[in-house]
Amino acid sequence: MASSSEAEILRVSQVIRDRWKVKSKIGGGGFGEIYEATDLQNHNECVAIKVESSKATKQVLKMEVAVLRRLQGKRHACKFYGCGRNDEFNYLVMSLQGKNLADLRRETPRQCFSLSTSIRIAHQILEGIREIHSIGFLHRDIKPSNFAMGRSTSNQRTVYMLDFGLARQFLNQKGEMRSPRSAAGFRGTVRYAAVTAHKNKEMGRQDDLWSLFYMLTEFIQGSLPWRKIKDKDEVGRMKENVDLNALLEDCPLELHQFAIHLKSLGYIDTPDYDYLERLLSQVERENGFTMDEPFDWEINYENLPGAKRNQNGNASARLKSHTTAMINRPLDDRNRALETQAPLTMGEDDDEQTNGPQAAALIPLDGLNGGISQEVVAPPKIEKPKYKRHEFMKPKYGTVNLDVISAVNARLAAVGMDDEEENNDVEANFNLPSSVLRPQTAVESSASLRTGKPKSSDKTTKSNRSITLSINSRYKKRMTPVTDTTNAQADDMSGNARTALTLLSKWHSSFENSSEDVEGMNNQEGDRSNKDGSARNIIYGRLSAAFTPLSRNSNETTSPGGTSSSRLSPMTVHKQSTTINQNSPSNGGGRQSRSTSRDQKGSVQRTASVGAAPSSTSIITHFKNLVSSFNPRNNRATSVEPNNSSEVSYGLASSGGIRVSPSVTNAKVAARVIAPADEEKEARRQRRLRRRSSDVNLAMCGRDDLQSPESPRVTAIVQKSVVTTNSPSIVRLRDNGSDEQFKIPLEDNKPILFCRRKRYQFLNFPRATTKS
Ligand SMILES: Nc1ncnc2c1ncn2[C@@H]1O[C@H](COP(=O)(O)OP(=O)(O)OP(=O)(O)O)[C@@H](O)[C@H]1O
């Protein structure tokens, strides 16, 4: 509404139409106030009453009533109980729902939802949008606070669409498209509005879907790039020019496809809702999300180590933020409106209220005094904001699998990492909610990490410190965005012995977002300014494995450098020596890492006769790619092309043997983390680093285990040593059998595989026990 004074429109205990008794105010936005009330004529059932001052310059409740009535019977619409008006206000009574999605997101410890929750919620929102479009209306203000979860046990997992105040009929009474106006004015909320709205053009069905797309991105990523930009036009420009690859970093490929479909649509076009639903279903299916798994808010955040419940989740904070919007938002003050994320209405759109077929669709409001005409009053004085903007965009903690990384880092910091002191493995367990990490087996409820120097009996493992970390397959796509098209392809899906290509890639490109996160090989001290041990953790080898079975036929070769086949990476020079034995047993964990190393060696020996000599030219070529993939300056330029492959690009062939199940499709990630306890240890570590390899462990597992409990889950570790040397431009690759040295054209001594961990320092684990 144009404004309301701080006095509320309804009083507690006020009874409307002898039926609805006001209990409390539960919200207020740009256009109205929402109260909880009880229905005295229906067993005191709780209802929501939305009221709008009859003096408001922009009356939107009529539209709400019209749309809500037409939506009756649809899954994502509130029940309509009644409406009316009197001298003071117009009102709409509907079923009471639970918290809205904006509040729920703010209550999460990281201000973002897990991929599972995000996708499943988006799926329901898409259905809701489809429903409103099916009755001939656009919503035009799709945003998280306009969706609420159900409140009763029977509907608490259903998303309800709210607030049809800015809706517009796009079909005329004959069911034909209304012709678009040349200048329509801005409608919606700046953060989520489609570019069409920013351009003041007539919005179409695709624009509601664009808003859903921005919402979904925000759910997953925790924020949108324009969250702090106040200028509406600037936000519009940013949206128009946004690099989808950057925006959707680590998101499932299907989101790219979602956006690509929307881009292809104009006002007149009917979106392919089925296709969009299929995309979301695909993400759900591929990641093993099930409808009955809990949403993030159904998990007790307090059980998460180090996680604090956000204070803004309580009712009064919700109320406050909405009240702010309601009190302070002048209709034409775009900055302030943006701050509160209340809908903006700019320009003329008169036919919304009074003209055209839409007006004909409006029902008369009946009420206490019925049919009282509205007075026209001057807009009330604009008051200063009472509350500061609620800054809910906390620093980005990245996506969900960072929980795991953070947990690992914090855990390692706690257990200490000096291998001079700890000759044996350190094993630590920590609990993570199932939505964060899929346990290695269906029944496990904890993830385990294993660190430590190999025992002396273990001759084959070079790793001095390594963690094998199982990342839920559901995050596969986010961990491994396609960044190149040189993926090796599977030539044979049913062979007994296969050749595999292991690709190194960034596995969480959030680390690469800012250049200060990345340190050169010669600059691995960690953040000395931060005395907190965990803050100085360094994650080495942010690598994921893209694992693609190649031909079972070992003599079906690809020429070194991959030049003979565009489908194969240049690094396929090693492919002959990477043999997979599908019969290999597996138990998982660090122990497995060692046994696999032994297998690797055997594998290398077994296949040595068929292995082509590696071409250093091709390796250097590939390293160039690798360098650029980890170079933040080049990163943005990396092409991300949605395609069917869920795996990654930048490749470094592993010549280690891999044991995997026949249906390996997923990658697990192993990261090497070093948390120096003090300066001296750090110096020691530096020296040691020059001597030793920093192993990159790539662990893989079939994701069949998630779908079919019977199928044997096989986990394997591929080891590749990347050896630092004194010169930043020299990197030695060491396999179990060979040791090769390459000159790497590093730019400005920029690192290849190293990055400093700065951001993810919030989890604080209790000290772990050290096994000796
Ligand atoms: N039926 C309902 N049940 C429970 N809560 C509701 C209901 N309707 C609205 N709310 C709450 O009130 C808030 C504001 O409602 P609504 O969006 O309809 O008002 P508005 O004035 O149009 O707000 P805005 O201008 O921010 O869009 C919602 O975010 C939601 O939290």
UniProtKB/TrEMBL annotation:
GO terms for molecular function: ATP binding; protein serine/threonine kinase activity. ATP binds at K50. Residues 525-534 have a biased composition (Basic and acidic residues). InterPro entries: CK1_Ser-Thr_kinase, Kinase-like_dom_sf, Prot_kinase_dom, Protein_kinase_ATP_BS, TTBK_Asator-like_STKc. The keyword ATP-binding applies. Keywords: ATP-binding, Kinase, Nucleotide-binding, Serine/threonine-protein kinase, Transferase. Residues 20-304 form the Protein kinase domain. Residues 432-449, 550-586, 602-616 have a biased composition (Polar residues). Residues 429-467, 475-494, 513-534, 549-616 are annotated as: Disordered. One of its GO terms (cellular component) is microtubule cytoskeleton. PANTHER family: CASEIN KINASE-RELATED (PTHR11909). Belongs to the protein kinase superfamily. CK1 Ser/Thr protein kinase family. This is Protein kinase domain-containing protein.
